[in-house]
Amino acid sequence: MPPILPDFCNSVKLKYVKLGYQYLVNHILTLTLIPVMAGIVIELLRLGPEEIVNLWNSLHFDLVQILCSCFFIIFTATVYFMSKPRSIYLVDYACYKPPVTCRVPFATFMEHSRLNLINNPKSVEFQMRILERSGLGEETCLPPAIHYIPPTPTMEAARGEAEIVIFSAMDSLFKKTGLKPKDIDILIVNCSLFSPTPSLSAMVINKYKLRSNIKSFNLSGMGCSAGLISIDLARDLLQAHPNSNAVVISTEIITPNYYKGNERAMLLPNCLFRMGGAAILLSNHHSERWRAKYRLVHVVRTHKGADDKAYRCVFEEEDKESKVGISLSKDLMAIAGEALKSNITTIGPLVLPASEQLLFLLTLIGRKIFNPKWKPYIPDFKQAFEHFCIHAGGRAVIDELQKNLQLSAEHVEASRMTLHRFGNTSSSSLWYEMSYLEAKGRMKKGDRIWQIAFGSGFKCNSAVWKCNRTIKVQTDGPWADCIDRYPVHIPEVVKL
Amino acid sequence: MSKSTNVSKSFHKILAHFFPFMISYSATFNHQSMVLPEQEHLVYNIRLSSVGPGRVTGSDVVHDLSGLDIAMKLHYLKGVYFFTDQAVEGLTIRQMKETMFYWLNDYYITCGRIRRTESGRPYIKCNDCGIRFVEGVCDKTIDEWLELGDDSLHNLLVYHRAIGPELSFSPSVYLQVTRFKCGGISLGMSWAHILGDAFSASEFINNWGRYMARLKSNGPLTLPKSLDNKIEKPHDPNQFVKEPLSAKQVNPVGDLWIAANNCKMETFSFYLSTLHLSSLQEKILGEDGRKRISPFSSVCAVIWQCIAKVREGFEPQIVTVCRKYPNYDNNVLSNSQIISAIKADFSVMEADLKKLALLMADDQGLDERNKIEAAVEKDDGVTDYIMYGTNLTFVNLEDANLYELELKGQKPKFAYYSIQGVGDEGAVLFLPGPPKGSNTENEGKLVTITLPEDQVLKLKTELQRTGLLPTELE
């Protein structure tokens, strides 16, 4: 019977049955309540008004009883409101837009590769194949130090890049939100591969003269999913501290990490990673609920580090020539799939409507009890979310997720276009994707957004946001000058 | 292919294999104006990067090359501009590079790379790869540098690599900015002649100056109409039968675009003040002739005769004269300069200078551009040609606007151009001299002569005898 079902699914009639089932299960409470209410009303009407008044008078109320009841109600209400987690609002965020002077067209990247790897034409060929299929466009940017032949990644250049990216994003955030530097209570900076002393968060505090009692954190080494880890940390801190503002800065500094060797597994990041950064303002001020763009609903973190293969799949190490680079293992996609499954299993019950959860439960029971050969039911996440922001880690990641979650091309458009225009900007790519959706005018009030990020470790982190107000198309932002050209068709293989 | 070209080809391959790490010019017959090893360290801290257009030109944008362009492929122009510290005060490399990203939006053709069609005809793929930007430092002041008097040293200020052997990874343009001890800079440009002539190259770099001064800004992206830069097609089919006099075929060079010489070439230059020029005119032409013949013609006549005397028995009967095309469109890069072949039916050595000068006037000589175009198109651009040095070549760059490149409103202190890849017959460039004050009429002229090195000393003696060259060199 199971193999026949998929054919039926294509028929239109079954589609309506599905819709009916979903409506029934999702609104089961309302649907059961209506007959109950109807029953009570009919009963009351039957009794008649005098009977109701007699019933009321027969209840003897004592002053003590009334006071106790009131006290009990007030006490329960207070406990409920106190223990309710504070709403975390995302007031606004700003993404860094690199200047045209940092632009690296395909041809320039290949030529520089050829000159830098002059003794390894095979590695150059490999990079060309990667670039052709990468899904990147001709406008992605690398920092100035990497434009040199050979690249000149000094610490000073790395700091310079960090300053340009972070300060631009911060200035933009201040302008957009009207935030004063002195009002920042929590500062979290995440940058995986560049971790100087004093930290980047200290650099920000120094530049903007932030308060001396600020709670600052600098997360390094946590990979591309560190952005959502920072959001999670900010959320926990905002639960502990009432009426606070938290600024989260997600970025990746490319300068010190350009791989100078010729090991193929390590050349891949060179082809994909590009300059980018984002600054996000989170707040638990009650007054922000009017102007905040989003409200944080869930953050789910899954860590597969306990598995050795997962731990080693994205590994920074020295190659045979003692050149440091990040080695990506061949099972990366498989491990990512596993991590995603884990994450979905946790997030599913939190976000999926009851209809999907019931189906999933039934198929699970069916598989366990009746027939283990039944195909596992993949819940339809399109019912739980309006928008998907998949970390633009590479074309393969987006393709894999599109397949696993059965998403349409429009759902993954934001991720693909971000990869095309900005490349893989690591932890900040999710924010460029959100920005794309806003620039296209697709964010309406009540929309739910799912941000998924993968990172070294191996981690899969998700965040669920709910759009707080319909967002008007803005004239600033990283997409302002090019949104009209998007979406573009990205060919399977670009002719170089 | 002869054995010597085989050997030189493999040598080129080895050279090209290590080319990013070479900053010296090795002593081969294929490089002119060799720099001595002990002088190489004068410019150091060489750093290479690329600058390209800030705007995406688009995929599959192609620039077709005309026959004339392809005929010039083995030649390169090298120009150096010296700016004093006042002109570049506070100017950083970063600012220079930033302006270039806007300037190159107009010149996306120079940022492309050479490809070949299936039939082997070269064309330019406009893939925004960029021009090479080179930085260097020199511990001398500009005055000290210019006092050294050795033209071959200017090669240290112009980073130059021939196109090839990997055509798709060879930039056509290199720009080198060298900082001197006095705070001034030199801007060295290596320009592949396939893109355009010296008038185009000069306009190209002058526009950068205008972008630096914010006098220009980008217009909308205009893609080329492929026949824009072609000159009018000739009507007479009989013109095509004969091979051109001013360009000749050379042995195939494959994908490494270097013109081979049979002997080492050397370049030297000298300055002629306006006074000197007018006295020379008087001497040759008398009072009336001056109005009909330009200083260029008279100077070239003297040089022609001197070279004829030096090459006794093999005097050059045919010379090539190149000058600016009067209807030159300075918005387009093109090889539009007029290339005329001038034949002397009499002995040059004993001729009357006036007669020679008249022969070289603007309206004389056969314009060979169409002939060259036809010769190249005959086998669709596959054969390799050279133009400069096929015959003794005189190039009039008076109107090349060399001193219009301005930084902070200041003209260059000195500008110098030379040609890389001149054939064995040699070439003479007639350049405007450095401006003295605001009156351009006060400027003299700079003459540079490239000849086989064994003829240079004898020529200098001859020129001194005629009074063209002062006995004490500047």
TrEMBL record, chain A:
<dbReference type="InterPro" id="IPR016039">
    <property type="entry name" value="Thiolase-like"/>
</dbReference>
<dbReference type="GO" id="GO:0009922">
    <property type="term" value="F:fatty acid elongase activity"/>
</dbReference>
<dbReference type="InterPro" id="IPR013601">
    <property type="entry name" value="FAE1_typ3_polyketide_synth"/>
</dbReference>
<feature type="active site">
    <location>
        <position position="303"/>
    </location>
</feature>
<dbReference type="GO" id="GO:0016020">
    <property type="term" value="C:membrane"/>
</dbReference>
<dbReference type="GO" id="GO:0006633">
    <property type="term" value="P:fatty acid biosynthetic process"/>
</dbReference>
<feature type="domain" description="Beta-ketoacyl-[acyl-carrier-protein] synthase III C-terminal">
    <location>
        <begin position="386"/>
        <end position="466"/>
    </location>
</feature>
<dbReference type="InterPro" id="IPR013747">
    <property type="entry name" value="ACP_syn_III_C"/>
</dbReference>
<dbReference type="Pfam" id="PF08392">
    <property type="entry name" value="FAE1_CUT1_RppA"/>
</dbReference>
<feature type="active site">
    <location>
        <position position="420"/>
    </location>
</feature>
<comment type="similarity">
    <text>Belongs to the thiolase-like superfamily. Chalcone/stilbene synthases family.</text>
</comment>
<feature type="active site">
    <location>
        <position position="424"/>
    </location>
</feature>
<keyword id="KW-0812">Transmembrane</keyword>
<feature type="transmembrane region" description="Helical">
    <location>
        <begin position="20"/>
        <end position="42"/>
    </location>
</feature>
<keyword id="KW-0808">Transferase</keyword>
<feature type="active site">
    <location>
        <position position="387"/>
    </location>
</feature>
<keyword id="KW-0012">Acyltransferase</keyword>
<comment type="pathway">
    <text>Lipid metabolism; fatty acid biosynthesis.</text>
</comment>
<dbReference type="Pfam" id="PF08541">
    <property type="entry name" value="ACP_syn_III_C"/>
</dbReference>
<keyword id="KW-1133">Transmembrane helix</keyword>
<feature type="transmembrane region" description="Helical">
    <location>
        <begin position="63"/>
        <end position="82"/>
    </location>
</feature>
<feature type="domain" description="FAE">
    <location>
        <begin position="80"/>
        <end position="368"/>
    </location>
</feature>
TrEMBL record, chain B:
<dbReference type="Pfam" id="PF02458">
    <property type="entry name" value="Transferase"/>
</dbReference>
<protein>
    <submittedName>
        <fullName>Protein ECERIFERUM 26-like</fullName>
    </submittedName>
</protein>
<dbReference type="InterPro" id="IPR023213">
    <property type="entry name" value="CAT-like_dom_sf"/>
</dbReference>
<dbReference type="InterPro" id="IPR050317">
    <property type="entry name" value="Plant_Fungal_Acyltransferase"/>
</dbReference>
<dbReference type="GO" id="GO:0016747">
    <property type="term" value="F:acyltransferase activity, transferring groups other than amino-acyl groups"/>
</dbReference>
<comment type="similarity">
    <text>Belongs to the plant acyltransferase family.</text>
</comment>
